[in-house]
Amino acid sequence: MLAISIEALVKIALLMGGLMTGAAYFVLLERWIAAWVQDRKGPNRVGIPLTKIKLFGLGQPLADGLKFIFKEEATPGHVDKILFTLAPISILSAALAIFAVIPFGSVLPASFSEMIPGLDHQVELLVAPGIDIGMIYIFALSSIAVYGVILGGWASNNKYSLLGGLRSSAQLIAYELPMGLAIVGVVLTAGSLRLEDVIGLQASTGTWNAFAQPIGFLVFVVAAFAEAARLPFDLPEAEQELIGGYHTEYAGMRLIVYLIAEFLHMITASFLIVILFLGGWHFWGITGSENANITWFEAIARIVVLNIKIFGVIVFFMMIRWSWPRVRFDQLMSLAWKVMLPLGIVNLVAVATIVEYQKSLEGKLGGPWGVTAAMWGVSLLAWIAAGVLAPLHSDNSAQKDSFVLSAEARNRGVRPGVTTSI
Amino acid sequence: MQLLQALRVLGIEPLTALACVCFALGLWLLLPSTTARGKAFGLIFTTISLGLFATNLHLLSDWVSDAVFYVMASVTLVSAVGAVTMRSPVYCAIWFALTLLGTAGLFFFQGAQFLGVATVVVYAGAILVTMLFVLMLCNPEGHSLYDRVSWEAGISAGTGALLVFLLTWTTATTVFVDNTAFTDKTPAKDSKEPAPIVLTATAEQQNKNILAPRHVEKLGGELFSKYLIGVETAGTLLLVALVGAVAIIAHGKHAEAQAAAVRTSDGMTSGLNEEGRRNA
Fold this sequence. Notes:
Chain A is mainly α and 422 residues long. Chain A has helices at 2-37, 60-70, 81-97, 110-115, 134-155, 159-190, 195-205, 209-212, 214-227, 239-242, 252-277, 296-321, 329-356, 358-365, 367-389, 407-411. Chain A is globular. With 280 residues, chain B is mainly α. The N and C termini of chain B lie far apart (94 Å).
């Protein structure tokens, strides 16, 4: 009992330390990438204080953190004080609690457990192993995170904040559906809601879900961008339109709590993309697929592979941010409901059919490769259909009146869009 | 004394009855009203009733379970009282969200992981967020008085307390026994006491179903085999509601367009109409 508690506490400490440091340095990375994209130098001065050593600007996150701690925690007079403080707390705690079910490696070899007295099982690199509903848990907590945004926007008692909160809640509700549909496709193939099982299946077959379900992967990535409120879907906080959206009125530590929570959402999204669709810790030829007789080399290779993949996805997130313009809100909504949702349903139906008739299909289509090829065919068809049938999202002309006049009214000379005043 | 005896005959713990009375009184004092009724007294009364209810409960196997259960249960109950007594609807929604989290925690505590998480996803994540979405558009200070006080606070508090009392009474008079213990100790046939109603699953059943490591699979299997008709009916009901909503919106839009067309044509007298044509 004691050994298990200590094991859990050590894992939590490792994860929290890693995540917080990671979030701080990803901010620095984001600024470097921004500088590189915009052909300027970016933060490169802060090194060791009181010396002339610069260290490529690696001291910048520490300096930023100190600055935020010493900033005045200004609370405007017109806000709802309780909810104003509660909102950032709720969003950060939800963002951190998600990591209870996300594996940050695979397992440690049995020789490690033998070294530590009181440990009678292989150590899984996951804070809460044995939770059977990992993915729904993630869903539940990401829906709790919406509260932080809505409450922050409402409590600020400011029109920009309120609009940011409204936009955010509409966006999160809209994109949760395609995200769920894409996840259900993965759950169907894995037959389990545990993230470690999903990785295990991809490792044992050697086929990552991104190859087997391309359209599901696409839907999930787009929905993950929208859920993390990253460009091109950062409408809740669009600086040019809403100043800062729901955190316009925030300053000091409460602001940094919001910013950390946002970064954690992006890191969560990267973890999920890698785990659900890019094979998790699996890489052909290096990591092996057995858990029981894992060697130290394999165990460390799995952690390294997982982290490299996550790093790659985060860099992809950041590159997208500096290369895509923001979409308009009606484009965002029609993309969610008219394109992503139908594509998600197509993916789900195709996966369900294939899972149901797996054995007989493999006989007809020629093994797992045939099944994957069929999946790609379906995806391509759905992709073309979406392109042909979906509304044109690049249409930037002024909105016309949407209602259709009756023939009789038209005969009387009524024209839409003409306002008459006498 | 006679009252106490009467209560005993009915199988009612006097403490429970007192707790319910305190609860009704406290709730009545806490509900938002036009006059200052004394919120502090209301808080004291509800706290007393919570304590009295707690005295009725049994201790669990170890102190960790006790601590978890009592914390979760008090969070649920306190936030439920908060949800009905707050003046601002947004605060009511937040307290209600906390109630749901407490309920989910109690489900988790019992091993029903799926139910716990589903409560959060469905209620806190979907329904309550939609409610907040609407509530955000209203300004709490802008409400008129009749929106900010609860009308007939006495009746509602009394009804609530009565409901709690009936539930407690029912659970107190129902004897919970383990199935295995029950079979060992068959009640004598000539005893006048009614046979205890068995409501709990045996330890064996629990281990096989709810505490099994793969219990979501089992749950899904049960839902889509034994309870298939129920699931499908619920799904169809939601679909019907959805179709109804769409129909109302579509009809509304159509009527609006018609009205707008009529308005525009009425606004244009024949002369203006001619002029409009000439301009065009």
